[in-house]
Amino acid sequence: MAKKTSNRVKPAETELKEKLVNLNRVAKVTKGGRTFSFAAIVVVGDGKGTVGHGLGKARDVSEAISKAVDDAKKSLIRIPLHKGTIPHEQKGKYGAGRVLIKPASDGTGVIAGGAMRAVLEIAGVHNVLAKSMGSSNPHNVVKATIDALAKLRTPMDVSRQRNISMEKLFNG
Asked: Mean pLDDT across the stretch 116-123?
């Protein structure tokens, strides 16, 4: 069996962009009244095939976002891109969230909604068709999208796993 290589990336502090996906205000009822805190979901990426997600919780918004960014930098993965799109169709799943991503021709743009759009744009995918099925919870959708992107394989990976040449892979 072929050795599985990890697609985890060490966080390079060079030009990582961040995007806030969801900010949730949570109230805890105490004897003295309500205490509010915030939970932030953030995706970070370099726009060239590296993406990660993180969750941060704190009493104020800016601290929650900075905690989420730090968490996201710890979970960066590298995805294969082919001419601004993904190499093949892929499904992803996390909890009740299910997503489907398909490669698209040049000029299509990112056809995706909500949390999926943020992940795909930050990852550097410019042309893709995406469908979110099941849960619309941003936590599940972001994690399902990252799962789908992590499952993507390059043509070289496929030829190596099948023990065939690249020519045979493309010409049948």
From this structure: 94
